[in-house]
User: Which sequence fits this backbone?
């Protein structure tokens, strides 16, 4: 690494991974974009014309795109790897990097999600990626994570965005923030990586709830004869969500104030404003059965659903171990029952906000 | 008070005060709606046909409307008074009740706002109302407050809403919650009334910020050539707002977790979704000067502006007394500079989220 210029490989050429190429190249770093086995068309297009078909815009011309077959060469001599896969690709990423890397390289992941350990413990995807790389015979890499409200297309459009980067050490997080920070990408370092990752993951689950509230308005026939909508219900679900995120973080010894900051309220807000999780919620709220709603969104990545299901597996064990208490999570319990059940019932509002 | 049935006077016949008549009458309580000097037309209409012109619907037929001249009679024998005025009417309310009441009656206010004491201390409007009633020669009444995301028209439409009622004692709050709670109006009691009221007030100020972010998109010409909007910026401002509310509450020894619950994130969310404060913000963000934006909204109550201005008076004293630190409130400082200045400048995003 010469001066402050770095060589960075982004592995996974989806929208979010690829968007990170903008601040990196704007800062003068060398960027190598490596496609997964699913990214063939994207890599072809970027190689041919710099145009990224899913971001619907050209990547900076200095970005070099690599097919997966060339990953060994692409990772040669890099200072940092950006893991650009979504939660479904983490295992693949671990195996791929584990087999390819011959020495430890710092990694930063943009993935949002969580896994559950055997005893029900919540496992951040950065920890999972570290483990998976080792299991595949790779070196012990330090995996950091980026979280916060950041729609990829906006970052690629150099629109103002604020995010956090979390690492095991503040020094590592500050180094990554320094590589990425521009006058439109405001990235603050933190060593509280568990709170960052779990907060960001849970908000995807809770967004389903706001979507259901929003869909219920449609089911009620829209505004009533006096023009009343149903924002109060949406707001109550939003607030119960941030409140439960706070509780889960606090119960794990993580800083619960993250729930009132970028990883909680902020990322929750942006996910409610657009995205797939809110759409699924709306379909459920509007009266479709869970099966019908899933059918309508077939083939679309729904990280919120995976997170709700993962929490559904974790909670019985966490209750038993007295890590969490069911009466503090009425909205999450409701979401689990909805996703695992037939359809969205009314919210248990009388059980909300009893923890004052 | 016979059994659980109460006689309740609502003083102030605006939309929010009047909406509270729905849960009250649904619970079988007797409701007397008293207009202020500004509510003459509303009272005439309700007396004639039960129709409330600003709510655009009929009040429950059992609600009796009274003109201000009859307030002594209307308050005779009541168990509870609902103060239905907005923040500009609190002083009037204090004088009116102070001159009228001959014995102490519990009061619950729906007013959102705050005042500043001589030393810069934040004063909740319930405390102010208690003081003003005494100053006007009235008895020592216990004033509680309702806060949380509740658009009046939705409550009047019996749409699902979750709010908190705060009193000096949990017993008092629980009593009021018991009078008001229905299967659509979910009201939880708390004795943490300062956190409730200050949280709810501040979110009106911070909503201006999200409005400015939203207006800036218009100024930029809307979505860019690849379809990117600017939700990341809105979300960052939203999160910085909840984060600063949390900080202000904590610095006053109030439970900072209210920032991640109904009075913070929830009420903030609903205010962003609709209302006047967000409109003013949008005008400012779109490039209008502060003076032009005010002119466009002349005659409209803008509680967010009053709160920003009040905080502008309070902060120098609170900094001096070391109650608050300016580096923790970059968004509030920005809003004060905008409202007191010529126009909205770019947000100081590099100063956001440094308190991790």
Assistant:
């Amino acid at each position: 690494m010469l001066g402050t210029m770095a060589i960075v490989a982004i592995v996974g050429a989806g929208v979010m991974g690829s968007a990170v190429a903008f601040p990196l190249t704007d800062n003068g770093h060398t960027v190598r974009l490596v496609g997964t086995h699913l990214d063939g068309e994207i890599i072809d297009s970027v190689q041919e014309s710099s145009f990224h078909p899913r971001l619907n815009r050209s990547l900076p011309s200095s970005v070099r795109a690599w097919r997966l077959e060339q990953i060994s060469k692409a990772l040669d001599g890099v200072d940092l790897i950006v893991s650009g896969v979504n939660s479904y690709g983490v295992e693949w990423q671990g195996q791929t990097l584990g087999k390819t890397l011959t020495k430890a390289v710092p990694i930063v992941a943009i993935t949002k999600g969580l896994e559950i350990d055997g005893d029900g413990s919540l496992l951040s995807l950065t920890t999972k990626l570290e483990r998976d790389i080792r299991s595949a015979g790779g070196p012990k890499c330090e995996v950091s994570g980026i979280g916060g409200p950041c729609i990829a297309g906006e970052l690629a459009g150099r629109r103002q965005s604020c995010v956090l980067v979390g690492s095991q050490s503040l020094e590592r997080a500050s180094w990554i923030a320094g590589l990425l920070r521009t006058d439109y990408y405001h990235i603050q370092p933190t060593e509280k990586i568990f709170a960052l990752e779990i907060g960001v993951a849970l908000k995807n689950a809770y967004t389903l709830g706001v979507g259901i509230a929003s869909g219920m308005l449609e089911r009620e026939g829209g505004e009533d004869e006096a023009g009343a909508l149903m924002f109060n219900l949406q707001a109550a679900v939003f607030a119960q969500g941030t409140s439960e995120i706070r509780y889960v973080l606090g119960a794990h010894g993580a800083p619960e104030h993250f729930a009132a900051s970028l990883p909680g309220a902020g990322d929750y807000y942006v996910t409610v404003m657009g995205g797939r999780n809110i759409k699924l919620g709306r379909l459920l709220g509007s009266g479709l059965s869970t099966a019908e709603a899933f059918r309508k969104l077939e083939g679309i990545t729904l990280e919120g659903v995976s997170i709700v299901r993962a929490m559904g597996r974790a909670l019985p064990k966490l209750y038993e171990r007295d890590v969490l208490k069911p009466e503090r999570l009425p909205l999450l319990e409701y979401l689990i029952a909805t996703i695992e059940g037939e359809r969205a019932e009314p919210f248990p509002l009388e059980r909300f906000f009893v923890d004052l």
In short: Chain B touches chain A through 64 residues (CB under 8 Å). The first strand of chain B starts at residue 7 and ends at 11.
